[in-house]
Amino acid sequence: MHKPLLKQQCFINGQWQSALSGSQIAVINPATGETLGHVPNMGAAETEHAIAAAQAALPAWRDKSANERSKILRKWFDLIVANREDLAHLLSLELGKPIAEARGEIDYGASYIEWFAEEAKRVYGDTIPALNPNQRIVVIKQPIGVCAAITPWNFPNAMITRKVAPALAAGCTFVLRPASQTPFSALALADLAQQAGLPNGVFNIITGNAQAIGKVLTTHPDVRKFSFTGSTEVGRELMAQCASTIKKVSLELGGNAPFIVFDDADIQAAVSGAMVAKFRNAGQTCVCANRIYVQRGIYDEFVQQFVAATQNLRVGKPLDEQTQMACLVNENAVQHANDLLADALAKGGSLKTGGTHQGTFYQPTVIAHAHDEMRLTTEEIFAPIAPIFIFDDEDEVIQRANAVDVGLAAYVYSRDLARTVRVSERLEYGMVGVNTGMISNAAAPFGGVKQSGLGREGSQYGMDEYLEMKYLAIGGI
């Protein structure tokens, strides 16, 4: 790894800074337990300083032409691509993600910067016909102002670029608090952004006390937009705090994705899709297949093929090129997985493979004959445990799939085009993968319904999250 990309200070107003107290947080490699380094343990005072820097930088950045901002973002993208191997190595070390998968995340994260570098030049308004011939009605879009975000540990690169890129493209400035488990990827991005020519104060990163930092970001009057990706419980609290200053809020919260396989599906394709949707990042993604529903007529055959594929999944060290699945993020994640597994088995689930762990390395696990009374039906698993449920008909599975308070992603496998359209429209989810287990794309709007959050990230719609609409009534013409 290229050592200069490993930054152990925070980035505020273009300067690398330590906490005022000198306090630090250790960053641990979850695969080995070794300390990778330290980052500052900052709090409210440093957060205020970062917001002030972003506010001071706002007028000049906002007033740059869209083309000027686009060129800087494009250079940032080029630098990320040039440093792909180092960024992937760093991400793999701090998260325990397989190196091949880490490279995929770097590419995916960079795609948002590339996409919004172009979208910067496509912020269009409207001219509306007026009732009075002496008037003109014009609608313009302007940057909302200083934005802030708290990002999760499971995608320490892509969850940042997905929020920061549209904000900067729109002309906003940004204050980011990345997860304490995986801060180095964020700080490396800031280093490359500075190299790309991003002016001081436009992009600021602070690490440290989550509650203290979060309280300032959500209540400070100069922060006009707040974004969070994480659990529904925490998102609910942060949204309530934002209410004190009526901020614009976008939240990408918990999921509980149903993966529905009808008896007319291509079973091999469904198994392959389920493997991707379930075991990517060791099951630690918000769009992971949480409940796999298989129609009775093909249930046994699907389980047999899925178990065989699971047993062939190579679990190993993150930096091994052959590794397909590595470790969980920490011991708490292991304990959560064990608790869900124990509950499922106590309630009649049949363990087909897996169910063991060594340290943070959890064997991919399949539970057959899962049913709705198990905790893993209503709780987000966030581990490589795949429960497989039986269903009989379309109406039944839709009712069961919708019987949760979240609605982020869902998946449907069927060769019947009419059925895929019917089911997709009736599923109460913000995103539906039809005959595919991969749905994330910079060009598509990512987000959920119900208690999975508010707003969309990515696509042309993601830009609107960082813009205000202004109506101009022009008279006397």
Automatic annotation (TrEMBL):
The active site is at residue 252. It holds the Pfam family Aldedh. Its EC number is 1.2.1.79. GO terms for molecular function: succinate-semialdehyde dehydrogenase (NAD+) activity; succinate-semialdehyde dehydrogenase (NADP+) activity. Keywords: Oxidoreductase. It is an enzyme of class 1 (oxidoreductase). One of its GO terms (cellular component) is cytosol. One of its GO terms (biological process) is gamma-aminobutyric acid catabolic process. InterPro entries: Ald_DH/histidinol_DH (IPR016161), Ald_DH_C (IPR016163), Ald_DH_CS_CYS (IPR016160), Ald_DH_CS_GLU (IPR029510), Ald_DH_N (IPR016162), Aldehyde_DH_dom (IPR015590), Aldehyde_DH_Superfamily (IPR050740), Succ_semiAld_DH (IPR010102). Residues 17-471 form the Aldehyde dehydrogenase domain. Belongs to the aldehyde dehydrogenase family. This is Succinate-semialdehyde dehydrogenase [NADP(+)] GabD.
